[in-house]
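Ticket #4471: structure export looks truncated?
Reporter: QA, pipeline team
Priority: medium

Steps to reproduce: submit the single chain below to the structure queue and open the exported record.
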Amino acid sequence: MKIGIIGAGNIGATLARKLAASGHEVKLANSKGPETIRDIAFRAGATAVSKEEAVRDVQVIVLSIPFGNYPELAELFRGVGKDVVVIDTSNYYPFRDGAIARVDGGVPESVWVSEQIGRPLVKAWNAVLATTLAEKGLPAGTDGRIAIPVSGDDPKAKAVAVKLVEATGFDGLDAGPLMESWRQQPGTPAYCTELAAVELKEALQSADRSRAANDRDSLIKEFMAAGASLTHDEIVARNRAGTAVTKPRIV
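Actual output as written to the record:
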């Protein structure tokens, strides 16, 4: 497939590398211009382009930019065909993105993003840490393969996203419509907890909307206080403990 990725950070660049390695034709863009990411794109097996070129003549567009920047993309999507699948990988953190009243009031993150860019989208790859995405993918059918939730309203678009998730080394799990995508947002048991498909399905079902924002904020404060002292596995463990239905005591 022809895929355009906007955002060349840890998630966007890793997706470019993995999707290119799977045989897809990938264009990679950022907000500063192609000359600033030529080396990143080259190492990923992608082509560095402007964001305007990234959405042209493609079948899939992956958005991996800071959450608060989505309103800036509205004009970019005016000429994008309705048959192009758009996938959002972002997450909302008020300390970083600034307070967004509609999201704070309960509108799921990717529903808000859809409103900003004026078109339907699928939410995927948001509930996975950058190290998990880069290093923990496994071939299909392998025991212990991590699953990633995929939410969206269009069955065909969601099926495309699931196939691409599979191509990056993870089981793609249909997590329902976009209005239910709050179940895979920060502060929920499905978020960055490295679960297999059966476990992930249970985690999505057990999510408690009333406590998700508090759990998100408590965890990010904990991670910021710890700085670089936590290992990847410790971060995953704390995500699991901090969002568990019955929270264990951390000693």
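Status: closed, not a bug. The export was complete when the record was re-opened. Leaving a note from the reviewer for reference: The longest strand covers residues 2-6.
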